Amino acid sequence: MSHGWSANDIPDQSGRTAVVTGANSGLGLHTARELARHGARVLLACRDETRGREAESRIRKAVTGADVAFVPLDLADLGSVREFAATRAPDRIDLLINNAGVMALPYGTTADGFERQFGVNHLGHFALTGLLLPRLLDTPGARVVTVSSGMHALSDIDMGDLNGERNYRRWIAYGRSKTANLLFVHELAGRLTKAGSRLVAAAAHPGYAATNLQSAAARLENRRAVERLFGLGNRIVAQPASAGALPTLYAATAPGVRPDSFTGPGLLGWRGAPAPSWRAGWTRDDVTSERLWMASEQLTGVTYPSLTP
């Protein structure tokens, strides 16, 4: 992997269609913008229409001739996920970027009654990918990239308490949702490989990137001191969101990306150019990944199409 890989190294994406969840701000916005800059048609799959259309306008201003469009998708509502897949998703999908997420929120539930971090970060994307999988399988060179986090190291998944109903701790719940992302990619990649499919399922993380994700919970709870602390960290320590998006863009577009790979910033997983990233051993546990897969199908009601050789 090239030490200095940057957005300038993204191959031509003309003729390709990308779906980017959470593309209204932060990592998702920068990911969508760079894919559009390199010729892709990009759908901005966002919950908030006002912010989604603002992002669409920003990309059009930054990229002459950008082919981008806002499409409503609320990952906290499986009904919205199903509607998106049935009526709003394109027939051809070359790139599915599972980017949207929430971080360290106080306990709350999604429209379907799931703990919000597990429900949005994992179950929403699990359902979305499953519903779009036939289109991805039919598209030569397609990839699914799921954005996890180095914070997955905070905790393995708890199969006995997936919904976080016992002793909820927001950061542990966040870490578990990010572990769930990696277990999902591990299981999906394994199933695709066994079936002889050339669809690539990979994962990425941004390191410490300056986005509004860190301070969202503090803002929601009106914890001004915590919000200021995160803001200070974003200014002094974090890398820009544009740099944080590079591992995702690498996993989505660079030649030779391996299934079940995990790309992050090269400098201790903190910042820098994309490079292979450390991941906890529990994120490659075959038994746990299969158990989580089966539980996720049951919880979401989305059964993946059979993957046979």
Structural class: alpha/beta
- Gyration radius, to the nearest Å? 18 Å
Number of helices: 10
* Proportion of beta-strand residues: 15-25%
Q: How would the global form be characterised?
A: globular
Strand order of the largest sheet: 3-2-1-4-5-6-9-10
Question: How would you characterize the largest beta sheet?
Answer: 8 strands, mixed
Structure description:
By secondary structure, the protein is α/β, with parallel strands linked by helices. The chain contains ten helices and ten strands. The protein has helices spanning 26-37, 49-62, 78-88, 116-137, 170-194, 213-220, 224-236, 241-244, 246-253, 286-300, and strands at 17-21, 41-46, 67-72, 95-98, 143-147, 200-204, 209-210, 239-240, 262-267, 271-276. An eight-stranded mixed β-sheet has the order 3-2-1-4-5-6-9-10, with helices on both faces. The chain has a two-stranded parallel ribbon with strand order 7-8. Helix 5 (170-194) links the parallel strand 5 (143-147) and strand 6. Helix 4 (116-137) packs parallel to helix 5 (170-194). The model is unreliable at 214-219 and 229-234 (pLDDT under 50).
